[in-house]
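Annotators were shown the component list below and the corresponding predicted structure, then asked to write short factual statements about the assembly.
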Amino acid sequence: MTTFAPASRRATGRRPLNWGRIATWAALILAIIVTLGPFLWMLRTALSNNHSLATHSGDLLPADFTWGGFARVLGLQSTAQAQAEGGSGASISFWQYLLNSVIVSTLITASQVFFSALAAYAFARLQWKGRNKVFALFLGTLLVPGIFTALPNFLLIKNMGLLNTYLGIALPTMLMTPFAVFFLRQFFLGMSREVEEAAMLDGAKHGRIFFQIVIPNAVGPLATLCLLTFIAAWNDYFWPLLVGNAPAVRVLTVGLGVFKSQSPQGAPDWSGLMAATLISALPILLLFIAFGKKIVNSIGFSGIK
Amino acid sequence: MTTTSVGPRKPTRPSADSGGSQRIVRRRGRGDLRVALIFVAPALVGFVLFYLVPTIRGIYLSFTDYSILGNPVWVGVKNYVKIFQDKLFWNSMGVTLEYVLLNIVVQTVVALGLALLMYHVAKSTVIRGILLLPYLVANVIVALLWFWMLDYQIGIVNQMLQWLGIPKVAFFGNEFWAIPTIAFVNVWRHMGYTALLLFAGLQAIPGHLYEVANLDGASKWQTFWKITMPLLRPVLLLVLVVTVTGSFQIFDTVAVTTQGGPINASRVIQYYIYQRAFTQQDFGYGSALSVILFIILGVVAFLQMKFLRGNENDLA
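Structure shown to annotators:
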C-alpha cells in the first residue's frame, strides 16, 4: 500500500521552494515542541532551587541549579537543608511508594497476561460448547464503564478484608481483562497450526502444546501485551486511590496526589514535586526508550481499548 | 467489531479458524470441554467476580439506600427521583458535557491535523513515538506538570502571556477557565494517541485512489473531502467512541488539580459519583448516578454507530 506515494508528495517534489511544505514542516516541529517542551520544563524545574523559581520564572535554564529537589524526594536531604532550598518539610515516603508501584504493577502484569493467554488459547484453539457465547460475554463487558464496576468491586474487596493490601489493588485485573483476552485470541487465531497439529499427532497434550509451542511462538504479542498492561497498571490512579490509600501500600500515583495536597497553598515545593513526577515517570520513559517502536506499532491495534 | 484492527499489521486472518483442528477433533470424535475449562477457569473466575457480578450488583445497589456500614435497604426508584431533582447532578452533567464537547472537538481536529502531517511529511516512527509520549505518562503526572506550568503566580505559561502583553489567567482557579483548561490538558495528553489511530486509518486507504483523483485534476481539498474523509470514517468512528467514552469518565485530572472547584465549576460526573459514594458514604445514590452514566454512554455509542454508519466501509 505504501508503495504509492501520496499525490501531494509528488506534486511538491517538482517545486523546491514550496510554502505549503514549509508550513507543514513548521506545524510538525511546533507539535513536537509542544509535546516535548513540558517534559524539559519538568526537568528544568526539578533541577532548580525552589526559592529561586519565583524570581527566575522565565529562565530557560534551571534557576540556581541544585540536585536538592531529587535529594529531598528521595529522603537524602536533612530537614534544615530542605527548608533552605524551599522544601515544605512535607515528607514523602518515595522509596516505599516506588516499591509498592513495582510490586503491584508486576503482580498485575505477570498474572493477567498469563491467565489471559490460557483463556485466549481456549477461545482460539479448543473446541467446546458455549465457546463463542462466553467470548461474546467477555467482549460485551468492554463497554461497561470502569466507574460502574469500581463501586461494587470496592465493596467486594472490602468484604474480603483486602482493603489496603497489595492483593486488593491487584486482584480485579489479575485474572483477566476482556481486552487482554481479546488481544491474545486474535494473535493465536492468526498463528499457523501446522506445528501444533504435528505435535498433536505425536500424542502431545494441550498443556504441552500451549507451553512448548504456542507461548514460544507468541513472544512478540505477549511482550507487547506485557508492556501495555504494565504501563496501564503503573499509571492507574482511581482504583488504587479507592482501595490502597494507606501509606504502606500507596502506589506512586496516589502518593504524588498526597504530596501535592500536603504542600502549602501559598508556596508549594514545585522543584520537589517536579523531581517526584520525573522519577515516577522514569520507568515508563525507560520502557519507551527501549520499546518505543513496539508500543507505537501496537497502538493501531489496541485502539479497541 | 470489524473496525478493531486498524493497524498496519493485521493480526487476524479470517480464514485461519478453519480446517486443521476441526479435522483432528473429528478424528478424536469429541470436543475439548474438559481441557478448555481448565484453561479458561482462572479468567472466568476473574470475569464473573470482577465484571459480571459487579455489573448486576451495581444495578441492584442503585435501587437501595446503602451507607456501607449497614445493609442495603431496597427503596425502589427513590434514588433516581432524587437525582432528577438534584441541582448538583444537573450541574455536573452540564460541566461534563462542556468538557466532553471541548475535548472531542479540539482533540479530533488536532489529531486529524497531526495524522495528515505524519502521513504526508514524516512517516518516521521516532516522530510518532515522540507525539505518543504524553499518552504513556500517568494522568496524575500530566496533571501536576500542567498545574505547575499554568500556575497563576510563577507558571511559565502566564509568564509567556505577559511577554505577549496579555493579562495573566488563573487557569485552574477561574470558574470560566477551569473546564477548558482541564480539557486542554487532556487534549495534550491524548492527541498523539488519537493521531496514531487516524494515521493507521490513513495508511489503509489505497494509494491508487489518490493517483486517479490526481489524474482527474481534483484539488487537494476535493481529494480530502471526497476520498480521505469518507474512507477514514470507520476509524474516525472508532476514535470518537473511544474518546467520548473516555472523556465522560474524566477523573484523575480533576482530582489532582481543582477537586471540583472553584465552587462547582469542574465537578464532573465521575468526580461527583466518587464524592457521593466515598466521601459521603452514600453508595446507593452513587450507584444510581453511575447507572445513569452507563446508560448515557450506551446511548452515545449506539447513536454514533447509527449516524456515522461506522461498520460500513465505502471500499466494500
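Statements collected:
1. The two ends of chain A are 26 Å apart (CA to CA).
2. Residues 1-13 of chain A have pLDDT under 50 and may be disordered.
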